[in-house]
């Protein structure tokens, strides 16, 4: 058993012994719980545990910000983590509010930089690669905030580990970090526009630490193949696999990224009624609508589609107008759909470099400013 496997087994076993520790330091990934977020949380928690001088007093735990019944849809992560997947800790495995009330909790955010709860007060460090939100957490110690628009959060985690004088990057740690970097940058595809010089630099440094020099083009292809596996998935599963929420004072939107190479058009072709979409919204805090994003990577040339669905027609009008504004630079072209439904829209997104990371801030601004039309 490798060192990180032993650590993850140990970490999960200590859920029954939290009272014996003075402090529980959680490394928490984002709510979509994708490959980048999961590996960032696991590797950074292991790193902190390894360099901790008082491990009998301070427990470092990687926590996945989702539930096990949703995580089962993440075929690429289940394959990539192999033996470690049975020792993952999910958000409902630990009572963070209870630890907070006892004054025993610290939270480190990786792959995001804010929480929609009072637990924001417990955040002591942030490592992220997304555009900063208006409601982001302000920490007094700026050295504990690393937000940089690179292709993968694992690039920033790798940079931290490479700079440490008291941690040895093993073959497995290097392998775990390089996987999400390849996946998130689409194997450094120039046409995807997601790669920065730092992604390539950190990847190359990590690659030299790997004793098992596998062909990373094969690793990338396997990850994409696993991510594209939709065997047995329902419409709701496809939407739930990779979902985030955008919340404003008057509207809540789900934002779903479909599995690799599964298009919005194909999803809409499976709909006979709006029941699946309505149930999905109901299961996601009664959201008012969903924005659906898809990515195809044929011959490494990315193609994107965007779909909209609103429970109420009066909400469709403003979001439909807003998302198509030229200043948002999505370059949307509306397509016909095989179902007669005015609350459903399908677009070809000709700006293939605009991923969810770019679309989310636009939707956050929409939700912040949205005022419902007078129903009278």
From TrEMBL:
Pfam family, one: DHHA2
InterPro entries per record: DDH_dom (IPR001667), DHH_sf (IPR038763), DHHA2 (IPR004097), DHHA2_dom_sf (IPR038222)
Any GO CC annotation of this UniProt entry: cytoplasm
Gene3D superfamilies: DHHA2 domain, inorganic pyrophosphatase (n-terminal core)
Domain DHHA2: 220-367
Keywords: Hydrolase, Manganese, Metal-binding
Transmembrane segments: none
Cofactor(s) the protein needs: Mn(2+)
Coiled-coil regions listed: none
GO molecular function: exopolyphosphatase activity; metal ion binding
Family: Belongs to the PPase class C family. Prune subfamily.
Name of the protein in its database record: DHHA2 domain-containing protein
Species this protein is from: Adineta ricciae
């Amino acid at each position: 058993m490798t060192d990180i496997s032993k650590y993850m087994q140990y970490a999960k076993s200590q859920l029954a012994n939290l009272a014996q520790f003075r402090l529980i330091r959680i490394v928490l990934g984002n709510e979509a719980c994708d490959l980048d977020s999961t590996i960032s949380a696991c590797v950074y928690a292991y790193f902190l545990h390894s360099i901790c001088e008082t491990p009998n007093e301070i427990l470092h735990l990687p926590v996945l910000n989702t539930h096990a019944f949703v995580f089962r849809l993440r075929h690429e992560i289940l394959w990539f983590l192999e033996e470690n997947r049975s020792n993952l800790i999910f958000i409902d495995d630990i009572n963070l509010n209870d630890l907070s009330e006892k004054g025993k909790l610290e939270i480190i955010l990786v792959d995001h930089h804010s929480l929609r709860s009072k637990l924001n007060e417990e955040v002591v460090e942030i490592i992220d690669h997304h555009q900063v939100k208006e409601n982001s957490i302000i920490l007094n110690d700026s050295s504990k905030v690393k937000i940089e628009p690179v292709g993968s959060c694992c690039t920033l985690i790798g940079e931290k580990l490479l700079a440490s004088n008291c941690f040895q990057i093993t073959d497995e740690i290097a392998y775990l970090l390089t996987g999400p970097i390849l996946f998130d940058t689409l194997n450094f595809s120039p046409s995807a526009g997601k790669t920065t010089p730092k992604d390539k630099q950190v990847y190359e440094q990590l690659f030299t630490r790997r004793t098992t020099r596998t062909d990373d083009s094969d690793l990338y292809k396997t990850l994409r193949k696993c991510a594209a596996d939709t065997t047995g998935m329902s419409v709701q599963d496809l939407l739930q696999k990779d979902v985030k929420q955008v919340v404003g004072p008057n509207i809540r939107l789900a934002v779903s990224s479909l599995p690799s190479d599964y298009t919005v058009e194909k999803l809409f072709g499976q709909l006979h009624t709006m029941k699946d979409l309505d149930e999905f919204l109901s299961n996601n805090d009664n959201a008012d609508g969903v924005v659906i994003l898809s990515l195809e990577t044929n011959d490494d040339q990315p193609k994107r589609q965007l779909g909209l669905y609103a429970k109420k027609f009066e909400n469709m009008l403003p979001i439909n107008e807003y998302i198509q504004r030229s200043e948002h630079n999505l370059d949307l072209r509306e397509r016909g759909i095989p179902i007669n439904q005015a609350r459903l829209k399908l677009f070809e997104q000709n700006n293939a470099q605009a991923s969810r990371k770019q679309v989310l801030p636009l939707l956050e601004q929409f939700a912040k400013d949205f005022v419902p039309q007078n129903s009278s």
